[in-house]
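Hey, I'm writing a tutorial for new members on how sequence and structure tokens pair up, and I'd like a real worked example in the thread rather than a made-up one. If someone can provide the structure for the chain below, I'll link this post from the tutorial.
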Amino acid sequence: MKQKLKEHKEPFVRIAKRVKIEWWKAWGIRGIALVGALLVCAAIIYAVVALNPLQVYKAMFEGAFGTNKRLWVTIRDMMMLLCIGVGLAPAFKMRFWNIGAEGQILAGAIASAACMIYLGTLPGILLLLVMFLCSAVAGGLWGLFPGVFKAKWNTNETLFTLMMNYIALQLVAFFVALWENPRGSNKVGIINPNTRAGWFPPLFGQDYALNVILVLALAAIMFLYLKYSKQGYEIAVVGESENTARYAGIRVPSVVIRTMTISGAVCGIAGFLVVSGASHTISISSAGGRGFTAIIVAWLAKFNTFVMILIAGLLVFLEKGAIEIASRFDLNNFVSQMIMGILLFFIIGCEFFIQYELKFRDKKHKEAQA
């Protein structure tokens, strides 16, 4: 008995991975996604709170850039987010899911605060240099531990780095209790308010100019390191396939340990920026969730540290804008967070259409089947 073979019918639409996409098309898709997000948010704003969407968007812009002080605070926070994203880039490119940036930031912050408290008599430039180095070492050690355990015993890096965050939080709580000022306040307070020892000095009349110079320098160095150095090439190969890396003679455990140490060190420097270049104190909220937000920055930028500048700027703008519209229009915080969530959904979702394309069944195929 002959079995009838079912004819293969091509689906009306299918998903195919793009081999390559021109840069202008990729940014065009992102632009369309941003416009679409703004239109959806405008409709929701008008439907929920009956406000003119243009006034809301204007308020968001003014919340981030409305005054010179707001502009520089936005730039400061943008540089902080960028620094953490730069730190996560090598680990993520190696497909090592470093979720412990929060802990690495706090480790660097503890080191910086300790230097300010115990070494405050050192000359200004020397003290800043010591703080920079100590923060990098502390963050590097915080990244080294999960790197060693992954390289030697193949532990789960996501859980390991996440648990390290909680250890760092408890260490900060311990040092806050040790350094609390005044006693019984359960907070450190501003460190060295009179001498300003360990504070970033103003440059070009701006308190946060040194933040910008330092972070942009780190971004440039990391870009060159990942793209043109031998170690950057090894990171890329290990990220693509560990078996291929071993076949090529690359010592995978050494690459994992080295890369995680570098990743942690740069995140530790972000802790230095928090203490010395921004708050001039330390608390359990010093990292402020930026270690998780920076994951979006690194991932959307495809580990390109210069593209991270744009992504970090956009995320900080959305955050400042959401805070401004909540206070100006007396809105519930959930409304502003909803707007920010919609914008992020469109921005992150558009990456699907950059990586993949929709292919529809063409007319010739229909005629061939007929």
